């Protein structure tokens, strides 16, 4: 496979079809439908990388935005992404507990559910392979390490933001991140790849 971890961890992914039932918040300067369009790719991608199967990610994504719709008046302007990330982490954790023993045929399905805008078939194939690699490596990480690794290395949140999102001390976040990086490198080595991600060094 002609790809590397940098390609995998740099993936942004594409969103699925727009959520049904998008609504415009009454008396709110931040219409919900606009927030959905803005943050849908992020939430969808995050849920997949946190272990939600492809067949369930649409439903999980809708749950995240339903919670936002109920809590929007409590969310500070500019903090929507952080709120959605924290909500996605909780939804993914709940999904993993519920489906822990169930084997999904589509666990390694690419994050992107629609064809990339890039018309080059070779590019699309390499992108799909990179996505599959990333999901495969992430699946090997314990849940708590996976959450920290995804939020820091892929979503590029800071330690303080992750601490607030996961409601754990920053020292715990740093410790989990160190362990996650070690496990990530080990998984890459087992797959016979020589490169690690730029930020994981």
Please give a quick description of this structure:
The chain has about 200 residues and is an all-alpha fold. It has 8 helices and no strands.
Largest sheet: none
> How many β-strands, per DSSP?
0
At CATH level 3, the topology is Butyryl-CoA Dehydrogenase, subunit A, domain 3
The CATH architecture can be given as Up-down Bundle
List low-confidence stretches.
1-27, 113-117, 194-201
Shape: globular
Please report the first level of CATH classification, the CATH class.
Mainly Alpha
Beta-strand percentage? under 5%
N→C terminal distance? 22 Å
Task: Determine Rg (CA atoms, Å).
Answer: 17 Å
Mean pLDDT: 77
Which sequence of SSEs, written as H and E, runs from N to C?
HHHHHHHH
Helicity, as a percent range: 55-70%
Structural class: mainly alpha
The CATH homologous superfamily corresponds to: PhyR, sigma-like (SL) domain
| Number of separate structural domains | 1
